[in-house]
């Protein structure tokens, strides 16, 4: 709840500057940070569509703050540092390196990600890694 308030506050501050009050507010709290990552490559964009769409990953992974799962930024940071392989993980063939204690929760998604093509998995990986700080 606190986060949403903060978000709204940031939004309204921002909209005062740009005079686009109505438009800013109607974008809602969920899509706010997407505006920041608008320069995506085609693969990253496909990844985003899967992530926010049929993958339903967005429910548990927000760009910058931890919710049910770690933030996308956190995942990107650790996968870059450790040179991890996201497609392998999403096929259920890897080991968790971000938050192993919560692995059981993430595992429930493999029945979805196992049906993704290699190309789709790669796109999701590129989208996630584009959030590395
Ligand atoms: C029900 C909530 C939930 C959903 C939906 C979800 N995740 Fe997760 N995810 C988690 C949790 C909790 C973790 C932390 C456990 C872990 O690290 O394995 C996690 C961890 C991860 C990790 C890091 C794994 C590691 O090495 O530790 C990746 C990558 C990931 N999720 C990708 C995805 C993608 C892609 C989707 C959509 C297809 C998705 N998640 C959907 C809850 C979820």
TrEMBL record:
InterPro entries with a match to the protein in the record: Cyt_c-like_dom, Cyt_c-like_dom_sf
Coiled-coil portions: none
Extent of Low complexity compositional bias: 28-38
UniProt KW keywords: Heme, Iron, Metal-binding
Domain Cytochrome c: 42-132
Keyword Metal-binding found: yes
PROSITE patterns the UniProt entry points to: CYTC (PS51007), PROKAR_LIPOPROTEIN (PS51257)
Region annotation (Disordered) ranges: 24-48
One of the Pfam families matching this protein, by short name: Cytochrom_C
Name listed for the protein in its UniProt record: C-type cytochrome
């Amino acid at each position: 709840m606190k986060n949403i308030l903060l978000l709204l506050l940031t939004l309204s501050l921002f909209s005062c500057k740009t005079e686009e009050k109505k438009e800013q507010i109607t974008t809602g709290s969920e899509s706010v940070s997407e505006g920041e990552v608008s320069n995506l490559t085609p693969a990253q964009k496909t990844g985003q569509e899967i992530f926010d769409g049929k993958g339903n990953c967005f429910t548990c992974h927000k760009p910058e703050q931890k919710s049910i799962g770690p933030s996308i930024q956190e995942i990107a940071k650790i996968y870059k540092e450790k040179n991890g392989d996201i497609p392998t993980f999403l096929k259920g063939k890897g080991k968790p390196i971000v938050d192993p204690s919560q692995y059981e929760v993430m595992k429930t998604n493999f029945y979805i990600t196992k049906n993704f093509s290699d190309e789709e998995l790669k796109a999701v990986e590129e989208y996630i890694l584009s959030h590395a700080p």
